[in-house]
Structure formats: C-alpha cells, structure tokens
Fold:
Amino acid sequence: MPLTSSSAVNSSVNPSVSSLIDPQINNSPASVPEILEKALAGEDIFPAEAVALLQQDQPEIIEMIRSTADRLRQEQVGDRVTYVINRNINFTNICEQHCSFCAFRRDAEQPGAFWLDFGDILAKTTEAVERGATEICMQGGLNLAAKINGSSLAYYQKVVETIKSNFPDLHLHAFSPQEIQFIAREDSLSYAQVIQALQAAGVGSMPGTAAEVLDDRLRQILCPEKINSNTWLEIVSTAHSLGMFTTSTMLSGHIEKPHHQAAHLNYLRELQQQAMLLCKANANAQNYPARITEFIILPFVGESAPKPLRSRVGRDQPILADNLLLTAVARIFLGNWIPNQQPSWVKLGLEGATTALNWGCNDLGGTLMEEHITTMAGAKGGTCLEPEQLKEAIKSLNRPYQQRDTLYNLI
Ligand code: SF4
Structure:
C-alpha cells in the first residue's frame, strides 16, 4: 500500500525546473576547489555547482574533479568493484514509437523485425542459467500486437511466468517505465495496477531506462512520443512505493548541455531522497518502499541512428573524455544517495568502462550475453563478456572484484 498518492509524490519530487534550466539564473558563486571541498566534507552540491564542474576544460582542473570523485567513491563504497552475471533479452524490436536516437525499432513488416515466442524466451533463459546467470534483464519495443485475449498486461504476465515458473529463483529485471505506461494505456489501468500485477507475476526490479534526459524540451526532439519527465518520475516513484526497486539512467552526449545533465541528476537525487525518507519512516515495513539501486550513464551512439539526430550530433561514437567528466560529476552529485554507479561497457568498450572505474564508478555491470539495442545503433563494445573478462579488467586496476546480485547483495 503506497504511503502517498502518486500525484503527491510527483509534485514533491520535481524541483524548481526554471532555476535549473537557465544557468544564468543559477550561476554557482563557488570556485571549483570550494565545490570539491564541500563534496569531500560530505555535503551535497547544488545543481549550479554541478554545472560549474561540467563546464571545466583545463586538464589540471578535470584531474581535481576526477580525484575527488575517486576519493568519494572510495569513502562511500570502498575499493571493491562488483559485477553481475546476467542475460539481456530484448524480446521484440517491433515498436509503435520512433525515437530519434533509436536504430533498434522496426515496423512489423520491415526487414530485421523480430518477436521472440515464449519458447525462444525460455530457451535463452535456460542457456543463461546454465552459464551462471542470476538475472534476466528484459525490455522490448512497444508492440501493439503483443496481447493475449486483447490484454497487453496478460501478454507481459505470460512472459514473466514463462521464466519464473521454470526458474523461480532467477531475478527478473524487466520493463522500463515506458513499457509500464504502454501496458497501462492499452489496458486502461493505473501504473500501480500494472506494476503490482507484474510484481505478483515475478518481476523483481525495473530498469530505470526511458529516462533519456529529463527535460521535456529535449524530449520533444529525442523521443516526442515517449512519456514526459513527470510521468517517468511518477512511474518510478510508484514502483518504489510498491516495494519495486529500480535502476536509474541518463542518455548523454547528444544535444544536451551541462545544465540539462545537472537538472537530470537533481531529479534522480530528489527521487532517491524521497524513497529513502519514506523507507526511514517505515523502518518496520518489509521491503517497503524500495529505491534506486544504481546509476548508469548511457552515452549516445549514433552510427546507425536515424539521420536527423545523427547529423545534429555530428559524430558516431561517444567522446570518452566527456563521459568521464560526467561520470565524476555524477559521483560527486549523487554519491551520498545513489552510491552504486556503473559505466556502460557496451557503449564505451571494456577499456573505456574500466577507465571509468577511476572516475567514480564502483560496478562494471553485467555479462549481458546478448545485446541488441545499442549494438544495432553501432556500438563497438560488443554484446557479451565472460565473467573472467570483467574480473581481469577489475584486477588490472589492483582493485578487488566481487560478483553481486541485481540488488547489490554480494554473492
Ligand atoms: S527507444 Fe524504445 S520506445 Fe523508442 S523507438 Fe526505440 S524501441 Fe521504441
């Protein structure tokens, strides 16, 4: 039972957007060393201070930011680097939407369209379990035909039950806030009804994808058909209030500016603060409410993206240096509240992701076993890593490695 209605949650989560959108209104009076000192003293920095850090371009100042992030990471979560053995299953790429960064989606009749049947999903899951997976991560396109007896929810429940009836102990990390809204819309249900039904079927946690950048003006360019920022926040808040853990993400390195990035981080921090305060208020409650388990930066890969956005961004692969600075600022801004931070090896490559472990990250993500969404966009990082490769990468930094489960319990 939620403590508060989703509209109440939503209104308290949203910061004063206007003060974040315009960096002229909210310029940081503090110098970079003062901001970093404040962070090292354990205080949260302001969004305008994050903007000031993100605007730096002098190597020695960037090194100060990196070393602060690395020290905070060490203080907040230690030297251990975790990883998870998981399999990604993208069950269909047939999608009603047309996000401008997406090279994955197809219309049903288009070449390259796919839709796995329940047998395929079970076969992939079985293979993953045989290879040691503790988690299946599942997301797909918004496929209007994916219904059972006219119900989208019934279809998604069947997907979940296909996995959970055969592997009850496997953690199912599934369905983005966008998919939750899609099911709710198709079946005329509330977000809470959809989340509760999927939770009852066996979903263990939700990916915090579809966040892209939480700025509605940018979303009009990036993903005009997607849920807006408030709806994303509302669905994730609702999930937390129902005991459903989520991750959190940011799509970076396209048309967004530092003040958009800072505003996005601030939305996530406020969302997490709210979840944690509610948790404190209900110390005796079992698994209620939940919160954000990790933050992942997803740099834009444009190689096969639709032309207009690709041309506007003007490059095909992420700029590692930009990603690393954002990684460090994310640690400084979010670390008191979201201590687990992960780079995307699919997008940065294993070498780039390993470098990010010195810029504030403490987790190297999952083995994935297969990945389609980013790979179809032209990412060079590959689609599968063996646990040994992740361990070797971590060892190369003289840091200890440790397998974990989806919710960051050590294995
Ligand atoms: S990003 Fe997701 S919702 Fe957008 S077009 Fe691609 S598959 Fe569809």
